[in-house]
Amino acid sequence: MRVTGTGHASMRIDTAAGSILCDPWVNPAYFASWFPFPDNSLLDWETLGRVDYLYVSHLHRDHFDAKHLREFVSKDATVLLPEFPTSEMEDELRALGFTKFLRAPNEQVVELDGGLKIMIQALTSPTDGPIGDSSLWVEYDGVRLLNQNDARPTDLTVFAELGHVHAHLLQFSGAIWYPMVYELPQAAKTAFGKQKRERQFDRTWRYIDDLKADHVFPIAGPPCFLDDVLWQFNDIHGDEGNIFPDQSVFLSEYAKVGGTNGIVLLPGSVAEVTTSGATTTHPQPVEEFFANKTAHLEEMRERKRGVIEAEKASWRHPEIDVLAGMKRRIEPLLDESIYLAKGVGGPVRFDLVGYDGAEVESIVVDFPGKQVRPYADEKVRYRFRTERALIEHLLHIDEVDWVNSLFLSCRFSAARIGQYNEFVYAFFKCLSTERLQYAEGWYDEHERAVDAEDVTLGDWVVQRRCPHLKADLTRFGIVEGDQLTCQLHGWKFDLPSGRCLTSVGHKIRAARTPTP
Ligand code: FES
Fold first, then answer.
1. This prediction's pTM
2. Ligand 1 pocket check: which of 155, 464, 478, 486 to mutate, most ligand atoms within 8 Å of Cβ?
3. Across 126-150, average pLDDT
4. N or C: less crowded end of the chain, CB within 10 Å?
């Protein structure tokens, strides 16, 4: 089995029974904030795009690049489609010209022509990607590969049960706006970023240990930030709180925990994976590339300046009345929302900075009051500050997912009172009736689900499943004193009170073990 690195989470898998192109991403995403790192735009995409199968793991724009799919990927390719709750991905791909779809039943092995086998695991909670993320397992001639991508299943048992895996490709770096955009003192930001960076690595080691594959390939990040206003997010400034470590940092951190089977793929690297080993060739020596990372980014920044400027010029729509537009889009959804609105529980304020960089329009999405209105000098739960032009653009293109556009762009700052509130972001990624209804139904089901089983962890009897996304706490729970940490996403719980210390809601059932 041949695996060609094509940048970020993208790869092309070639076997004698057919080829699969995964997640090709080349054009900047999220308001021109993210670019693939290392640069993959100079690859021979005409050739790479001539494939038998296309697999897009989810709709995040660093995985689903509509422009690139339209221009470079063969429309004869059969799309391997995860079993997602909505038809959005299929609809978007059809609009791009794809006509052949294979809907892979969730977690079931499908045999394709010539003995090529695949299995797709779709994750479908409202917090997984844009309502859905997925992983692809491939087997040909005894060689097994898992492209876990940036999916976060509670464990990898379903793949491990299919036999020993030879190549495991997974995310290790950050892909979020926390903590950089928060209006916090620099020392606090650094401390939170450091914790986050460590947690990302811990999670990666756990997945690697779960599967024990022969070879581990760090993929799906980090992106690079080429706009001058975002340049500081690149991990080239010696900031220990930077959440975007690169593949070379992965190798050195992995070595510290005894990992010796890591393989970095640069765009254009080719790994030939067999049941007995892997040989990899690179377009240039990997160490040499990372030693010159800053120069690579600076050169790329100059080359892409025009692309960023052209994108920026398309965002302004002065004819749009933002308050009226937000009212029209959001108020009907506030009316429909029960769980998400209750979960947010308070007003969320948007401060929109005008074209002159000075004038600010303050708009409140009032979740309890179910309306969008001008800010009325009140206490708010969250406050976001961003350019008015970005919201104009979102309204202009009728964007239903403001996480997959505004928030991932990192082109905003945020402040909040109290804990992180997942419902805020869940709501703003569900700005369509279809998505909102799905998310409401999901929370409804999970609130009702009786989670009766308890387990003993140290001096505590706690519910077995994590109140966040149901991870098995016998595997992921660590009790230190009176605090439990679920290592899957790092959420913490105060055991005496049951209170979740990471997010609003999500109480855990816990009691001290009875003394004999
Ligand atoms: S499942 Fe996410 S922290 Fe436990």
1. 0.89
2. 486
3. 93
4. C
